[in-house]
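[recover] target loaded
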């Protein structure tokens, strides 16, 4: 139960910080439009951000990143050894990022297609 509470608190804090400083601040959102994450999604998953609501995408990306970080943080809390924590975090973080970003791109690729109709 403690780990679930840790996950929820971590998730909420990360999401709120990202929302406040990136999505809802005009300056932060302008930087987000040309950020490496947006460029990554354009190049790797061929998303066209002219057809997609960028604020909605930023919200979804914030939720995705909060989940990835909170899940990784919660799992490494189970381990005592610092070096092992770092190794496990890396092993969890990379595949989870690839999987979650792929799922996010699939969802937004479908939304992109529906806007053309």
């Amino acid at each position: 139960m403690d780990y679930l509470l840790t996950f929820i608190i971590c998730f909420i804090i990360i999401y709120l910080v990202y929302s406040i400083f990136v999505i809802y601040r005009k300056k932060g959102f302008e930087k987000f439009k040309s950020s490496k994450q947006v460029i990554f999604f354009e190049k790797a998953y061929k998303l066209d951000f002219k057809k997609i609501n960028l604020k909605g995408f930023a919200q979804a990306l914030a939720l995705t990143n909060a989940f990835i970080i909170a899940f990784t943080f919660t799992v490494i809390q189970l381990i005592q050894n610092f070096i092992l924590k770092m190794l496990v975090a890396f092993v969890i973080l990379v595949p989870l990022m690839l999987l979650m970003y792929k799922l996010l791109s699939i969802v937004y690729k479908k939304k992109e297609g529906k806007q053309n109709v």
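[recover] notes: The chain has a mean pLDDT of 91.
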